[in-house]
Amino acid sequence: MSWLRRNLVLVLGLVVLVYTFVPIFVVVLMSFNAPRSRNVYSFDGFTLDNWLNPCADPSMCHALVRSVEIGLLATLVATILGTLAAFALVRHRFAGRSSTNLLIFLPMAAPEIVLGSSLLALFVASGFAGQLGFWTILVAHIMFCLSFVVVTVRARLAGMDDNLEQAAQDLYATPAQTFWRVTFPLVFPGILGAALLSFSLSFDDFIITNLNAGTTTTFPMYVWGVAQRGVPMQVNVVGTLMFVVSIAIVLSAELRHRRARTT
User: Fold this and answer.
1) How far apart are CA 189 and CA 205, in angstroms?
2) Residues of 184-218 as b/e, b for ≥16 C-beta within 10 angstroms?
3) What CATH number has the domain spanning 58-262?
4) 7-13-15 Cα angle (round to 5)
5) pLDDT, average across residues 205-209
6) Whole-number mean pLDDT of the chain?
7) Is the pLDDT of residue 183 over 90?
8) How many other CB atoms are there within 10 angstroms of residue 55's CB atom?
């Protein structure tokens, strides 16, 4: 009991961590499942067919590719615009700066159903009611990813030491050299984190996408549509791959950071 009292925080932390990863373990397990019926939540047998034939349902792969395309484009645009906005909010003084800081949080604070319906009303009022699809989803995803990018990059900028840039300028570095050799490498982890967060939010979104998709189907919409007749096991394969890729990106960034510190 004395050991438990001394390590209570550690034990609780491990319990919470295990509880958090239980759904991921279930997804990985079900990706090797060979179900005998529509009850996809029971493990009936081990198989590699789900991994060897990920596109057994072609519509799932089409929806997956569409989600990846939208996620990458939304991430690219939102990261560029959000990074520029973060630099403007942190490094410059202008009229309406405090109001802009407040407005940045509104898309994050507003419920998705409110943001999605508002965007749908905007598209309809602008004459795009019959053209809902890939591009309206992309615009919607850029809109709600932008706030997360600004907040993430701004936090990185606010915690950065300005003396490093001043030292570079004292050593006769031009503004461009100071930015690319000092500022950008220091801010890059925040930009990368914002980009990864944006892609995750875009790839995972259902409510806003469903309201502005028209006849276009993304991967979350596909999963929701097939849930009533049984989710194919290949969906768990996609989930496992996304988890492995995310872990690989984080680990590679951490290893690169440690290698840079030791050299």
Assistant:
1) 24
2) eeebeebbbbbbbbbbbbbbebbebbbbbbbebbb
3) 1.10.3720.10
4) 105
5) 91
6) 85
7) no
8) 11
Annotated domain spans of the chain: 58-262
Tens-digit pLDDT profile for residues 2-44: 776 777 888 888 889 889 888 889 888 888 888 877 666 777 8
Q: 102-122 as b/e, with b when 16 or more CB fall inside 10 Å? A: eebeebeeeebeebbebbbee
In the prediction, which pLDDT does 40 show?
61
Orientation angle between helical segments 184-204 and 134-158, nearest 10 degrees: 140
What would the pLDDT profile of 65-79 be if each residue is shown by its tens digit? Answer: 999 999 999 999 999
- Check whether 89 has a pLDDT greater than 90: no
Q: What is the 3-state secondary structure (H, E, C) of the chain?
A: CHHHHHCHHHHHHHHHHHHHHHHHHHHHHHCCECCCCCCCCCCCCECCHHHHCCCCCHHHHHHHHHHHHHHHHHHHHHHHHHHHHHHHHHHCCCCCHHHHHHHHHHHHHCCHHHHHHHHHHHHHHCCCHHHCCHHHHHHHHHHHHHHHHHHHHHHHHHCCCHHHHHHHHHCCCCHHHHHHHHHHHHHHHHHHHHHHHHHHHHHHCCHHHHHHCCCCCCHHHHHHHHCCCCCCCHHHHHHHHHHHHHHHHHHHHHHHHHHHHHC
Asked whether the whole model's pTM tops 0.90, one would answer: no
The C-alpha angle 82, 87, 89, rounded to 5 degrees, equals 90
